[in-house]
Amino acid sequence: MADLERVRTWANALIALHLDSGWSFGFDNAKTRAGLCNYTAKRITVSKYLAARYDDDEIHQVLLHEVAHAIAGTRAGHGPKWRSVGKEIGYVGKRLHDGAIADELAPW
To answer: Is 108 exposed, middle or buried (0-12, 13-18, 19+ CB in 10 A)?
Structure first.
């Protein structure tokens, strides 16, 4: 399980390395997705529930996935440009994460 303060440190380091100073990081309350890249707010978030369940390598990949979205831009989706950027910065995962979700916490 990843330590949330360590995740915050990694996220801020990746943002400083790859993005401009307008980008920020935070945790969110998502229960069925690991991360999010909000282009409008220039903010990358990770589910605090899932970060606590995943190991360090998994969370690092989630962060790289979202940073790749930020670099590739809003229109890239999970297409060739996003895949290319992801590979360039070290992302080795898939288009979507298939790990555990916190469905017991979801409202359904």
So the answer is: exposed
**Spatial separation of the C-alpha atoms in residues 26 and 43, rounded to whole Å:** 7
Q: What is the pLDDT of residue 108?
A: 42
> Over the Cα atoms of the chain, what is R_g?
13
Query: Which residues face 27 on adjacent strands?
Result: 46
CB atoms near residue 50 (< 10 Å): 25
The angle at the Cα of 33, spanning 98 to 71, to the nearest 5 degrees, equals: 95
Question: Which residues of the chain fall short of a pLDDT of 70?
Answer: 94-108
Q: What is the side-by-side order of every strand in the sheet holding 24-28?
A: 24-28, 43-47, 35-38
Q: Tokens in use for 80?
A: 């060739």
By DSSP bridging, strand 43-47 and strand 35-38 are antiparallel
CA torsion, ordered 74, 75, 80, 83, to nearest 10 deg? 10
pTM value? 0.87
